[in-house]
Amino acid sequence: MTIPTSSIDQVIPGEGAMAQPDTAPAAKAKRQRLRFVANGKAATGLIMLAIYCVLAIIGPWIAPYDPDARSNDLLAPPSAAHWFGTTHLGQDVLSQILVGTRGVMLVGLTAGLVATVLSVLIGVTAGFLGGAFDEALSALSNVFLVIPALPLIIIVASSFTTAGDVVVALTIGFTSWAWGARVLRAQTLSLRRRDYVEASRATGESTWRIILFEILPNLTAIIASGFVGTVIFAVMSEITLAFIGISSISSWNWGTILFWAQSQQALAQGAWWWFVPAGLAIALLGTALSLINFGIDEFVSPRLRSSGKSKVKTASGQTVRMRVGFTPVLASRPVRATQVARSYPAAPVSNGKVNGAHVAPRKEEVK
Amino acid sequence: MKYLLQRIAFYLFTAWAALTLNFVIPRMIPGDPVKSMISRFQGQMDPDAIESLYVLFGIDKQAGIWDQYVDYWGQLFRGDLGLSFTSFPSPVSEVIGTSVWWTVLLVGITTALSFAIGTGLGVLAGWRRGSWIDGLLPATTFLSSVPYFWLGLVAIALLAGPGSFFPSSGGYEPGLVPAFDQYFIPSAIQHSLLPAFTILISSVSGWILSMRNMMVTVAAEDYITVAHAKGLPERRVALSYAARNALLPNVSGFALSLGFIVGGTLLVEIVFSYPGLGYLLFRAVGAKDYPLMQGIFLVITISVLLANLLADVVYMLLDPRTRKEG
Amino acid sequence: MTGQPVLEIRNLDVDYGLGDQAVHAVREVNLTLHRGEVLGLAGESGSGKSTLAYGLTRLLPPPGVISGGEVIYHPPGGEPYDVLGLSDRELRAFRWAETAIVFQGAMNSLNPVHKISTQLTDVIKAHQPNLSAAARTARAREMLRLVGISPDRMESYPHQLSGGMRQRVMIGMALALEPQVVIMDEPTTALDVVMQRQILGQLIELRERLGFSVIFITHDLSLLVEFSDRIAIMYGGRIVEEAPAETLYRDPMHPYSQGLLGSFPALRGPRRELAGIPGSPPDLRAMPTGCSFHPRCPKAFEPCPARLPILGQPDAPTGGGRTVACWLHPARVPVG
Ligand SMILES: Nc1ncnc2c1ncn2[C@@H]1O[C@H](COP(=O)(O)OP(=O)(O)OP(=O)(O)O)[C@@H](O)[C@H]1O
Ligand SMILES: [Mg+2]
């Protein structure tokens, strides 16, 4: 549904240009974590995500109505009584959205967690152990990668008589770990060849100790980014399943709202309030997660970061953006045109080699 | 060539895995829904059709699992995917056959177009960082977070409706007969505009972003500095050196995310009641038409695999390192 | 032919970053390259050699900026001009036609998706648009032959060539437009010793034939002593000593040069003790006051931590034709 846009996903480390995550000592790592939070994109995303989490917890309590309760205000547009309007049965759309948040977040996070655990297990094991293990596990994840996920999820979920939240979360989790596994495998491969890992292997440290203490800490950013990416995918899939009526429609989630809106011809009746809020809620959640991922991306590969000040005033009086290929010459550069035309004595030559004293003109320099 | 053969072997393996998955899933869960369906149509089905559904869904528990598996494959090779319940008594293969071209054309063309446009804009955004395209990025992030189908709903609400140029549903004017003539083709195109636009809008930003990031990464490579040092024209450095290399990971990314994209585009069909596989799948799900669902899954998987193979061939043409050493 | 300056670097300052965060990677460098000479540039890793070389033609990637100085180019039989003052279009025309660069790590200098022929001819096309395609190809083949590669490798892709061949292709490419100056940044570090000498020997031969000047950058002082006419030593972004190759080899004045020379075994003559330099290169963000070498200098004395020594002609009997920045050899000629 969403294309994985993270550059971490796109660039497989070890196969192409890839900024390696910093392997920094603890103090520096702390400073970097702070820098991650200070990153505008990541901070915005985290704040938005926090709001969603709070709503997931308190949503059912602050909902003004019972989302199932019918009223006489059938298909009413937004008003003071019903901020987001009502459905064809007079149910309050705002309450449905608020109550639905919990299910969406729970399923998204659970599926993301399942997929992340699987991708770490499979990707890191494959990358670290290598050999036949690697071949088999890579083939497995590549198979899962090319099989279209959503139809597979639909097939699996619809095989259950009633697909509750747990079934949906597990189905999504078990089918969407392959991206993460692939990226993690490649990164583990390149980490494995690093000196300090080779060194611990040479000193006979156990495989699991090396994986836990040497490899995993350096994969944090990639694992986090994979988790966030999977949550995006899981939320989308879950809502899709509800929208096409596969998961049980007895519990509320944003997809269920859209399902009813679609099946009751909300569009034809001009009831835009019925489907717009749910869509915006999804889109904003997706945006929040994407922003977090951009933050992680820029954190991992500094090239993507737009460095603080990128415009400079050049000697020719223009303001230019820094770019590859034409290093700016700063405006403050002292230019002494008179020297250009000055002629210089040729250096004396002996034995074909230059022996002449070369005394270049230079600035006064007494400090 | 060796590379291509490897890829083909991999896709054959994947196809085998998908088909086997298709065999296993109904056997892991109670086959009751199919059984009840069959018994509902008991009188109207000829014994052969019942037999083939038994084989497909493993209701015939008498036979050993291995015999079932062999029978299953035998049936697939005959192109027998069972009977559809919703369009009873049409065979699944026939029902899918009429829908698949709608999807292939709509999704194929728009996905390729979206990739081309997104990559182009990504090249610009990555080469001239901080230009107006960078300003578009937040908006495109938002758009790529919107589910395709919801964007479709909004598009219908805003642009379609009575009196509008854009029809809100269907693949062609009701009443027309599908044919390659001057009545049908324009109508089909007119009906596909809004779904195509929806897919384009929601998928293009992903390509912009990934191409932009690849351009930024590639711009720091040594050969780009060399190209600048050679005093080549800016266009040549940007296109023939930077973009040409940045394209490679984007093409393999394209192949890998096809599976994701197809899922999203199927939903657009549902919203627009577009007569393709997605809409068919939607109806099959609603009617619990298991044979049809399974058949659609197989067809989609095979199509995605073929598209992947195509992307691999393109990649091979683009990257001399994968070609056989000459 | 030698003796006339072809490239003069004056007071060149290069920073990475802007304002307070700027790292001064090259400071007030003055250096003159004469026509037909090979000028060696040596120094530890991180001393700013590459930064200086790429800064000359504004090839540093962001956040690099040139914060001061001039680079005066003397075209043969023309008026000298400041390369840093050229417009982008002029600079593009200047690059490769007048100064070509063989980059550090020439392994990645070739575009992996284009054939060697394409990469050799596109630069000719960009600078000599009137030349016919056939003439361009002929020229490209000639360049390959010149660096000892069979012209039927023209249709190869970079990954089909060995490291040494790629290096030669880059050198051939650098000479394609017969530039006046060729900057070679550690062109041979990835190669084995035999191959290194072979390629450099070839280059020197070509120089005698074609008459270009070379700025030759390397860690390997033994190569420099063998192949260059003059050597400049860099430390912490500054030139600390500059002298004819023989002089520098026999009688290095700056303790840092002495240390550098001590870190490799003598080529010929009496064996010297392998000393090396204790300590590590300075952190550009926190440069020591005074002479930046003083914390590592075995001969540091009272003025070293306090005041910056000036690069000038030393007041010593052997001081002719060389400059050094060290309080042990205070400048005889006050320069400025
Ligand atoms: N992008 C950058 N940002 C900040 N500092 C940089 C950057 N690039 C280089 N430097 C610093 O500039 C200094 C000079 O680097 P330079 O590459 O010129 O050294 P060098 O003498 O060529 O070393 P080597 O022999 O290893 O090639 C180094 O100390 C380096 O840390
Ligand atoms: Mg260097």
From TrEMBL, chain A:
Keywords: Cell membrane, Membrane, Transmembrane, Transmembrane helix, Transport. Residues 105-293 form the ABC transmembrane type-1 domain. InterPro entries: BP-dependent_transpt_permease, MetI-like, MetI-like_sf, OppC_N. Coiled coil: none annotated. One of its GO terms (cellular component) is plasma membrane. The chain crosses the membrane at residues 42-63, 104-129, 136-160, 166-184, 210-235, 241-260, 272-296. The keyword ATP-binding does not apply. The keyword Ribosomal protein does not apply. It is a multi-pass membrane protein. This is Peptide ABC transporter permease. Its main location: membrane. Pfam families: BPD_transp_1, OppC_N. Residues 348-367 are annotated as: Disordered. PANTHER family: D,D-DIPEPTIDE TRANSPORT SYSTEM PERMEASE PROTEIN DDPC-RELATED, OLIGOPEPTIDE TRANSPORT SYSTEM PERMEASE PROTEIN APPC. GO terms for molecular function: dipeptide transmembrane transporter activity.
TrEMBL record, chain B:
Its main location: membrane. The chain crosses the membrane at residues 9-29, 100-127, 148-168, 188-209, 254-275, 295-318. CDD domains: TM_PBP2 (cd06261). GO terms for biological process: transmembrane transport. It is found in: Cell membrane; Membrane. The keyword Transmembrane helix applies. Coiled coil: none annotated. Pfam families: BPD_transp_1 (PF00528). Residues 100-311 form the ABC transmembrane type-1 domain. InterPro entries: MetI-like, MetI-like_sf. This is Peptide ABC transporter permease.
TrEMBL record, chain C:
Gene3D superfamilies: P-loop containing nucleotide triphosphate hydrolases. Pfam families: ABC_tran, oligo_HPY. The keyword Nucleotidyltransferase does not apply. GO terms for molecular function: ATP binding; ATP hydrolysis activity. It is a peripheral membrane protein. Keywords: ATP-binding, Cell membrane, Membrane, Nucleotide-binding, Transport. It is found in: Cell membrane. Coiled coil: none annotated. GO terms for biological process: peptide transport. Signal peptide: none annotated. Residues 9-261 form the ABC transporter domain. GO terms for cellular component: plasma membrane. SMART domains: AAA. Belongs to the ABC transporter superfamily. This is Dipeptide/oligopeptide/nickel ABC transporter ATP-binding protein.
